[in-house]
Design goal:
heterodimer; A: Rossmann fold; six-stranded mixed sheet; 9 helices; B: alpha+beta; 13 strands
Chain lengths: 235, 431
């Protein structure tokens, strides 16, 4: 592949604490993610996989190393622009949903647009369009807390795509769901990857989910121990 | 995030924890309610006193009397050139002016010679026996000696004309019905007769046109008469007999009101040096105002203490709110919301709580105060006509709301900055 990778993290190290309590979450890790790719970051809890995702998603800053986003050194950008990249280019899906209780489904979905300063009329239009796409249009005015687990995660995915991002970061997207609803959510994510070309970075310890991605990166004790590709892409 | 969205979100967040918001608002409500009432009471009493004192004189005059002898120096030696006999019985309605020596014509000439004094008029006391309307019942009547220079608190009609040659009179409102007028408007323009007795015991009557009806006043008792009427009455009263050197309890000195405060002060000092006491209306007002301001200040201090307690309530409420919404803040930050906007969101929430508390407090205070006003004026305070004990001034109300919103906003800055500093990763991990 000759095109510029959308995310290119080089020689990342990150440690927490100090002295004897010092814990090295990542040690000299490098990871490239190409445009339109789906990558699974696989590892046990405490392996450093979440820390790696936070760093490449520009939510956290590494102690050493550089992160390029679309060819640009993201860590040298002013905080305002980093926030803007996260707002415009990234979508986030979390295991615990992080829906605002009491607020309507539509309000939850359009939160990134609200932060971006989009007018309320456009927000509503775009929000309803996305909810329709995920078959949640009839739930738009329901309170987010009144939905089932699968519906909640689809609301979260709606929120992640409402700003038409180029990358979606998903942290254990099916961790809180039973296998049937988990399957539906997985399908939804891979459809987005295939149909819209949205780059997918999934953090998981679920081998089956990881296997559906183009590429799997195995993290253990803060280092990438191995990488593998789906057979049809390996050739 | 747009400003309107920020405000909208802040308002909505306020109502998310209803009980907590209600309790915080209640604390502010008490402060706002108290502050509005105390301020209104201060304004009401000040307004009343200002009107009352204005009935003692206009603002381009000094009211001049002899400086009262100071007792610490012992008895003052008699000097035929400067001393004047003190009757001690000279009635005066002016506070602080009683008990001093009368003024003589020589004193008036000396005062008129001071640079900056435009003219000096003695205040002549005239004794009126009765007032009647076209042969109707006669009533005892008195004329306020300083009335020619006063601004009456009028219910109807107009003020006295100083240089008019017609005899003009302003009667207190309680004479209106007794004299046989239908109402205050009816009294204005009609002619009444004043009866007086001269030095030789003969009775005379003088006609006077009623130009105005004044509110019953606490400080300036009696009716008002213009110089023409006073001169004619005094002339009749003396029966054209020379009663010896004229003695006046008070004199009125006119000065140019457009000059600076320092100029007026200098003039006042010069008059004091000459051995007289000169008081402007502002001076007379000043003493009373200082007392009122002191009382209102103490009352306001109580309200401020209530507000300070409420401010800690806001800090507490919002800190809990920030704690509860840690994940939400983390999520918003992850989605690209800047710390500054998070700060604004929580500060606005605090300001809105302040607005709720103050607005409800002020509205309740005005509603209860207005009802209280009519009850008080009809009942316990009916002896003080024209006194509206609680005067709600729009500027004071806006001031109270602004003050409380400012206090709330300042209280909100601690929790808001804590929210703004939250790291999105730590916030999202927070359980």
């Amino acid at each position: 592949m000759t095109s510029t990778p959308i995310i290119d993290a080089r020689n990342i190290s990150k440690a927490y604490g100090s002295g004897t309590g010092r814990f090295e979450a990542l040690r000299d890790v490098s990871l490239r993610v190409d445009q339109g790719e789906s990558v699974a970051i696989v590892g046990k809890s405490g392996s450093g996989k979440s820390t790696l995702m936070h760093i490449i998603a520009l939510l956290d800053v590494p102690d050493t190393g550089t992160v390029f986003f679309a060819g640009q050194d993201a860590l040298s950008l002013p905080a305002k622009q980093i926030s803007e990249v996260r707002n415009k280019e990234f979508g986030f899906v979390f295991q615990q949903f992080f829906l605002t209780p009491g607020a309507s489904v539509l309000d939850n979905v359009t939160l990134p647009l609200k932060i971006a300063g989009v007018s309320s009329k456009l927000r509503k239009e775009r929000g309803l369009a996305v909810l329709k796409q995920f078959e949640l249009a009839d739930k738009a005015s329901n309170r987010a807390t009144d939905l089932s687990g699968g519906q909640k995660q689809r609301v979260v995915i709606s929120r992640a795509v409402v700003n038409k991002p180029s990358v979606i970061f998903a942290d254990e997207p099916t961790g809180n769901l039973d296998s049937a609803t988990g399957k539906v959510v997985e399908d939804t994510l891979f459809d987005l990857n295939q149909d819209l070309g949205i780059t997918l970075v999934i953090v998981t310890h679920d081998e089956d989910l990881a296997a559906r991605c183009d590429r799997q990166v195995f993290v253990h004790d803060g280092v990438i121990v191995s990488e593998s590709r789906k057979p049809e892409h390996a050739a | 995030m747009k400003a309107t969205d920020l405000i909208g979100s802040a308002v909505r967040n306020t109502f998310r924890s209803k009980l907590r918001t209600t309790l915080t608002v209640l604390a502010l409500f008490i402060g706002a309610f108290t502050l509005t009432l105390t301020t209104a009471a201060g304004a009401g009493v000040t307004d009343y006193v200002t009107k009352q004192v204005a009935s003692l004189g206009t603002d381009d005059v000094f009211i001049i009397s002899r400086t009262a002898p100071t007792s610490t120096d012992g008895p003052v030696p008699y000097d035929p050139a400067t001393s004047s006999a003190s009757s001690g019985a000279e009635g005066t309605s002016l506070p602080g002016a009683g008990g001093s020596d009368p003024l003589t014509d020589a004193d008036l000439a000396e005062l008129a010679g001071i640079d900056g004094i435009l003219s000096v008029d003695p205040v002549q006391g005239i004794a009126i026996d009765f007032i009647e309307l076209d042969g109707g019942p006669q009533y005892e009547f008195s004329i306020n000696p300083t009335s020619s220079i006063t601004q009456a608190d009028l219910l109807a009609g107009k003020q006295l004309t100083q240089d008019s040659s017609t005899n003009e009179i302003v009667i207190p409102s309680n004479y209106v019905e007794s004299l046989g007028f239908a109402d205050v408007e009816d009294a204005v323009g009609s002619t009444v007769q004043l009866g007086l007795t001269d030095l030789l015991g003969e009775h005379h009557t003088v006609d006077a046109v009623v130009v105005g009806v004044s509110q019953d006043s606490l400080l300036a008792a009696g009716a008002g008469a213009n110089p023409a009427l006073v001169a004619e009455a005094a002339d009749l009263q003396s029966a054209r007999i020379d009663t010896g050197p004229a003695r006046y309890p008070l004199a009125v000195a006119y000065f140019d009101p457009s000059q600076s405060v320092a100029g007026i002060d200098a003039l006042q000092a010069e008059i004091s040096d000459a051995g007289f006491s000169a008081q402007t209306v502002q001076d007379q007002l000043g003493v009373i105002k200082t007392v009122i301001d002191g009382i209102v200040g103490v009352l306001n201090a109580f309200a401020i203490v209530a507000l300070i307690a409420a401010a800690f309530g806001i800090v507490n409420t919002l800190l809990m709110s920030v704690q509860e919404r840690t994940r939400e803040i983390g999520l918003m930050k992850a989605m690209g919301m800047r710390g500054g906007k998070v700060f604004s969101l929580f500060s606005l929430e605090a300001a809105f709580i302040g607005f709720l508390g103050s607005a409800i407090g002020v509205i309740t205070a005005v509603a209860i105060g207005t009802a209280l006003n009519s009850i008080l004026s009809a009942g316990p305070l009916s002896a003080l006509p024209g006194l509206e004990i609680l005067l709600f001034e729009p500027s004071a109300i806006i001031g109270v709301i602004t003050l409380i919103m400012a206090i709330a906003f300042v209280s909100g800055t601690l929790p808001a900055s804590r929210a703004a500093r939250k790291n999105p990763i730590d916030s999202l991990r927070y359980e």
